[in-house]
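Discussion board: Methods & Data

I've been asked by a reviewer to show the raw model output for two of the constructs in my manuscript, not just the figures. I'm not sure how much to include, so I'm pasting the format here to get opinions. Each protein appears as its amino acid sequence followed by a line of discrete structure tokens. Is this the kind of thing reviewers expect to see in a supplement, or should I convert it first? Here is construct A:
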Amino acid sequence: MTFHPGAFRAIGSAMAGAIRPQPPVPFDAWLPKNIVLVDGPRKGELWAPEDAPYLVEIAQCLSQEHPCNEVTVRKSQQTGVSILALAWMLYLTENAPDNMMYAVPSIDMLQDINSGKLQPLIDAWAKKTEKTVIFPDVSRSGRGSTIYEKRFSGGSIYLANANVVTDLSGKTTRYGVKDEVSKWQMLPNGADPENLFFGRFTAFRRQKTFKIFGLSTPELDSGDALGDGPGHCRIDRDFRRSDQRFWHIRCPECGIEQVQRDAYLLIDKKHPHKTVLQCLQCEHHISEMERVPAVRQGRYIPTLSGPDRHPGFHVDAFMSLMMSYEAIAEDKISYEAKGEAGAKDYHNLVLALPYQMKGNAPDHQRLMERRESYPAGTIPAGGLILVSGADVQSYGIYCEVVAFGEDRQSWNVCAEFLEGATDNPQAGAWLLLEEFTEQDFPDAFGVLRKIEARGVDSGYRTNQVLEWCRRHSNSYAVKGMPGRGVPAISPPTRKSVTKRGKRKRYGSAMTWPVGTWSLKAELYGNLHKTGLRSGEACDPPGYCHFHGDLGEEYFQQLTAEYFTQKLTKGKLHEEWALRREHNHFLDCRIYAMAMAEHLGLSRLTKSQWAALRARYEPENVPDLLSPASVVVAAATPAEVATAPEPTSSKKPGSSWADKWKKRK
């Protein structure tokens, strides 16, 4: 029997091709062919590198054959990095199946990721490529895929809550994702969740065949130069250990490569769409039209190098093609108007940088130098919300009246100490407080106004405070609540009871919880701001004004606390500590800020602010008795330009001079 030599060649080639190992597929080449976007403007379309060019190099580092064991991304919001992490799980499922762990900081976030992103991503991937790698749910007994585990041939994807010990124990994994790692907290037993997470990879550490992908928006900056201080942002700490790669673009004018920085952003507040970025060398104004192609043609440049440096990437809103200079400018203007909390959000969510709280108050003598010439007891122009805060002591009551404007600027109207006993709510200092807070305060337009809300501290003399507030309208018994994350003012709790021990439904005294942590952070952040008195072009949002009659004691009490962080038994404790014995006017200001929030300082719309201005700042409308200067000042330029020339009502020749000339 004979065979054609070509048949041997064909059969041999086919067999060689079947048994020859296929080269590993790089992650960046796998993405555009397999991942279908499940949200955003490109929903239902395949992932495209031109929409997020800054993700390509990150994907290359996450590829199966890349030698690194760790990849860090310090990112802003809505940059596509989270989708990249989920897609990496599917890539490994197909190309390097093994056990994987995807850890997030809460059970709610875990469920949202599974139902909102991971499972839809799996379904879209299977439909597009007709691949059934992930097994569907089999039963409720835990066999097969579940909400917390995705089983496939060769391993599983474990979805873990990083703030629960059991989720980070009893598993051996080769690949892992630390999502939103900056929000991971110390566990109740004092253990660090990152250490427990890293322990899942012990079996692969000797041969260094594991890979961990950490990503998160930053949080707080401890101020430590190396980033190793207690409480420092976790993702920033990892980024500082990396080679620190930043996305560089070329200036279309001079061609120099540079990183887009917030310091070079030139914002037109009246016309945000005209915002541009100034080149750091030639000072060319890079427009939005020039930015888009520059970002697409940009590249990462490492800042540091060394054998112990892993790939680390900084991804901010300036790199995102879903954002624009206009959108960044609008965010900055909006966030700045929210004080210290807004500044933190802008740094974290837009700039992808950790934020150092300006908790330490400025020097009280520097604040005294900023005193202004408006009279005490008068509401300056711009003060649309008038409130007061009071701090009760055994020997008297401290009280401050504050006016707030639309952009959160504040004016001290007056601050007084009302001396007297406070054990009887109908005598002593309470009568002085009633007289002081119920008086009429004139504003800059001569209109008499009353305080709209009075906050009185109920931490001391609780019964007397509750009774006094129950008897006086627009009075609120407030109680300071420590700790981060507590709202400025929360729903009240009823304190009065009937003879049977049940809470009164009507006529009951109520206590309003006040989140002092965030309010103090906002106040001290605003005190650091400089305005017209310091040579600036204008007073920034949140700027604090003080009249010239305030003494040194007031400023010492206003700056009597500082922010401190302590590591106790493995847990980080943050608190406001006293640097002086008396801080009563600081408490008064905090309670006044809470009252302003209660009246809508943060939630009033532009139309509502306009209504307040129309109510308290009436226009100077001229009438028949107004002098000419008022009429001209009130007239618009068009009215002045079209005003007719003054004419005489007399007929020609009717004057005495004309009659004298016509005499005979």
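Construct B, same format:
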Amino acid sequence: MDDKERKPYTHRFWGLSTVVLLVFLILGFNLWRLQIAEGSYYSEMAKGNVMQVVKIPTTRGDIVDKNNKLLATSVPEFVLTLDWLDLQQSKTTNWKDVVKRLAGFIKPYWPNPNESVDNIDVDILVNVQNHQWERYRPVTIMQNVPQELQAIVAEHQDELPGVSVDAIPIRSYPQHTLAGQILGYVREIGPNEIDQFNQNPDAKKAGFTYSQGDLVGKDGVEKSYDFWLRGKEGVQQVEVDNNARPLSKKVVQPPEPGKTVQLTIDADLQKTVEDSLDQVIANVQKTTNPNAKSGAAVVIDVNTGKILAMASRPSMDPNDLIGNISQAVSDKYFTNKDAPAASLDRAIAGLYPPGSTFKMITAMAALQLKVTNPQEQISDVLSSLGNIVAQRQGFVEWGGNNFGLVNLYRAIALSSDIYFEVIGRRVFDANPEFIGQIAHEFGLGTYSGVDLPGEAKGLVPSAAWKKANNQPKYDKERDQKLADISSKYDAKIAQAKDTQTKQKLQAQEDQEKKQVQVWYQQMISQNVNWQAYDSYNNAIGQGYNDYTPLQLADYVATIVNGGKHYQPYIVNKITDPITGKVVKQNEPKVINTVSISPSVLNTVKQAMQATTRGEGTASFLFSDLPEFSGGAKTGTAQIGSKDTISGELYNGEFVAFAPYDHPQIAFAGVVEYGSHGGDTAGYVARAAFMKYFGWKSTNGG
């Protein structure tokens, strides 16, 4: 090749060499600038970058009944999310324009149709700001995204960096109101709840810490077993710069699903109890009291403490409490504006005077102290209480009845008030604290330890309790009255012009203080010291007595199983949904064995059987069930004090067990404003027994 042919290639070579040289010079210059000239600046910037560990939500575990019927699960729901990291890293558009554009797309589907695009834009930004503590995970903008909007987002994905429609697990309760209060519901943890959840023993043992933004169980099993149901959240590492702006993210540990929680309840029996309770309340509304809207019922295994069914009315559908809720829904479940709050589990948190269902406690205390015997007969008239003073403090027989001579068996069967007033006063006179002691042994007025949140304690009154509870109030009032008198007369005496005036004022002061002391002694006598009417009232389950239906069921179970007081429980076991392995098994636990002798327990059990036979107040309930054997006690519990408006209102209460030989289950139920327990809660017990044992009525029912 000659010089003329070589010349074009030479020019190209030198041109390319020049370009390469320029590139290397530029790279070298930038390398020098970054590492040397501005090295310290970028070094400090890099030092400011940190790795944040972010939780990845997992799929919450299922809740099933004893036969594995699904009661709570997690189902996919399409939600519109905004990933702040992806949005900020976008180089194609301004993030504010993206949010504005998104607001325009979703306006036709926004929950508030009257809201403008500008306002929706603001709502989205406020939502992001409210979740600034979790800015490294996508923020949910809208739930239940319709298919039309899903298609729009997909079509305009290039214009909406960081915006996506994702399928996330949402809590679902396929049986709706069935066992609603037992199950509870799931929502975001509140700031004031974090410490409480972090005290959970299982969570502490596993080293798990709750934090803001977590979804947690808010009530029922969802709350008490939240640690097991929530599963193990995944871990994502997010790198952020020194201005807290996210730079990158990486999943280092995928989430693990929650465990399956199996309950002790039988869903079919639960439905029977709930349906029967609904029917009874509806009948009371029509025939007796339109205000009857509430009630509760419990069926418990007497030999283990397992809760087989537990209903509370008004009913609760946990599905109503998922996501955003309206003011109307909030009022229905929490505020008791137009109707009783439906979220309250009245079976464990409702406190009711037990009425005559308490009389077995009085009977056992009297027999144990030997202040009576089963055969002693007492005339069912007011004069049996004693002199006229005692009679004035007592209560006439219910319904204006006169049952003649009654012993223990007839007294329980007929629910004689006079009989129990007489023997009850004997017990209180012999040992003022004994009835309270016995009641506590049977689980009344104490926390049962049931594995559900929100249990009420209740109250067993006694002379010591009345004094401790009431006297401080009157002591404080007395001291304040005396102090006010002293203050008033100190000023007057100081300004008195002569001795005679001072003496007169001093005498007036002393007289007023004496009147205060007289008032104080009257209050102590009436409201602090134990009186005969306290003995009468509390012996028949009125007065200050207050218990939950669960406590009443547990107490009856303890009578008929031979005196073993079991701790009631609602969760049978927890299993791994993948392997099926049992990771936690709850076992029956005896809290205590009662001090009442076996012979006394058997006597009271026989008396309860008499209630369901012959002249017993519950005999009509089981007369068409030839297979029935067992016992019961009816109750008509006065809601308020005598001579008040509520004093004419009564709750219907009923407790029972079956069968008589080798009892299996116990029942307790209450219908607010239900009056006679046999006519109301008794029918719920009947339905429960028929379902559990498969009994059929001779009348075709």
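Answer (T.O., handling editor elsewhere):
This is acceptable in a supplement if you add a one-line summary per construct. For B, something like: The chain is about 45% helix and 15% strand.
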